[in-house]
Each structure stands twice: as C-alpha cells, then as structure tokens.
Design brief:
Length: about 300
C-alpha cells in the first residue's frame, strides 16, 4: 500500500503518520505546504513532500512518482479561520479537496480515498444523529465541509475508486488544536484555563480516530461512497468537571454550537472491526505529557 496523507504535519495527519509507522506493508507519503521541521524525524517507511494541495501539477507528480494506491485527505482550514476568512474556507475545504480528488482519479492507481469531513454538516441538533440525517450546516466551516462531500461524490462518478467520508465530532489529541484540546491539555498539566463549550458533545481521541481510519484502509466496503461516524463517546461538561474538580469553576456551558450533541456510531460497529476506546485516565496522562500542538496546515 502506497498511502498519501494530506495535511501530514497537522494534528490529525501527524497522528496518522505515527500510527502507520508500525505498518511494514505501508509506504506513507506525508504532504504539507510546509517543509519538514529540522527536529522532526520520520519513520523509515514515511517520506515527506512539501507543496500546496491546491497545486494540481504538484499533486499529479506526487501521485505518479509514488504510485499512490490510497489517499487520506486530512488537510483543511480550522473553524475559527473559516468564520473570519470565508475565502480561506472555500479554498482549503472545497477547492483543495477537489484538486486532490482530481489528481487521485486521473492517477490510475488510487483505489481508496478517505475524506475527513465533520459532523458540523448536520448543524447543532440535540437528538442522536445517524449517517442518513439531512445536512443543515451552519457557518462557513460546516458549509464548505458539506460542499467538499459533494465534490467527493462528483469526482468519483464513473471511476473505480471507493471513498469513505468520515464525520467526526470534536477531536482532541496531543497534537491537535482548538478550545477543547487546549483546555484539557492545560488542565491536565495543572495550569489555569477557562472553557466555554456546549454542554453536550461527541468526542474523539485522535489516536482512536487514527486507528479507525486505518481499519477503513483495509476493510471490504459495501458501496462506492461510504459514510461513517467513527468511534467516539458522548460527553458532557458535567463529566469533565468530575474528572478535574479543581477546574470545575472554569468550565462554563453555552448553547451556541454548530455540531450535533450525539452521534450514532452503530453503522461503523456493524460493518467494521471494533476496538476499545482509550479511557479518560490514559487520555489525561497523555495530555499531561504533551507539548503545544503543531498547527494544522495544507
């Protein structure tokens, strides 16, 4: 398997590179617009290519030189950046996705395309959401994620490629950024922090999400385009306050959310190998020993 990961120096991309380092059958090509940091040492089965994912010629060259068979598209713009600069949202989440899809579809070697979308495409609904829920995105981040899913379906039409569209909720990890990740990291390290967050939310620990994505690289999938909610857990601010009582007063709820409160993950459990999610004690231990994350990048 020759695997290309876009956003390979970002939070989720870095988790995937690390998780795939132990797979002797995988040759991994990390792609980012940034050069590899001098202090970053890659495993022997990983290479890094520096260039913009909006550059179709660059993508075609990488696909052909490395005979790419699988793609994980993890590059994209963050929520806050999308809302403040809508043009970046469309460029990073829609146009870049389309360019990667175009390069993959014309390479002639790509068999599977995994696209990291978001549960934000559903809007801030309170009931448990299945993959068949109508999309009602709110805000430029969610709108462009929904549009990127349409690009996946459009570009795959008439090809032999299979695709997976993943719709996770909130993602936290040692190398991810965002208000929830930053708060948990600081709290785990005993530092003062304040969290304004929806009371109920669906949470994914980045290494667990990486494990689910790796399963999807190898699984027998029923359709050309397959949509899943990856394994995660429904959480509440009350649960967080119980985990870290010394931070209780710093945790404040708000109800302005663009993500659903609950995701039904039964489709993934029915069709794919299941595994035990990482427990909170291990998550807090990992966050306690993490450093400031690398910011996601195209």
């Amino acid at each position: 398997m020759n695997l290309l990961i876009t956003g390979g120096l970002g939070g989720m991309g870095s988790e995937l590179v690390q998780a795939l380092a132990a797979d002797s059958h995988a040759r991994v090509i990390s792609v980012s617009r940034r050069a590899l940091p001098v202090d970053r040492h890659l495993p022997s089965n990983v290479m890094h290519e520096s260039g913009p994912v909006l550059d179709e010629a660059f993508l075609h060259d990488v696909m052909h030189r490395h005979a790419i068979t699988h793609v994980i598209h993890a590059a994209g713009a963050r929520t806050r950046e999308c809302e403040s600069r809508p043009e970046i949202a469309f460029e990073a989440n829609v146009l870049a996705t389309d360019r990667v899809l175009c390069a993959a579809s014309t390479a002639g070697t790509v068999r599977r395309f995994i696209h990291l979308s978001s549960a934000a495409v559903y809007g801030g609904k309170e009931h448990a959401i299945t993959e068949n829920e109508p999309l009602s995105p709110v805000g430029y981040y969610a709108i462009t994620k929904a549009a990127s899913e349409l690009a996946v379906r459009y570009r795959l039409s008439g090809t032999s490629m299979q695709a997976v569209i993943l719709r996770p909720g909130f993602i936290i990890g040692k190398q991810t950024s965002g208000s929830l990740s930053d708060f948990l990291r600081l709290a785990a390290q005993g530092q003062n922090a304040t969290l304004h967050h929806p009371d109920h939310f669906h949470l994914h620990w980045a290494p667990d999400l990486a494990r689910a994505i790796i399963h999807l690289l190898h699984a027998n999938l029923p359709d050309q385009v397959n949509v899943y909610h990856p394994p995660g857990r429904d959480c509440s601010l009350h649960e967080l306050a119980h985990l870290m009582p010394e931070q209780r007063k710093a945790i404040q709820a708000h109800h302005n959310t663009t993500l659903p409160q609950r995701l039904d993950g039964s489709k993934y459990r029915r069709e794919l190998p299941t595994f035990e999610l990482t427990g909170w004690p291990e998550i807090m231990y990992q966050l306690q020993n993490s450093t400031h994350p690398t910011l996601p990048s195209l």
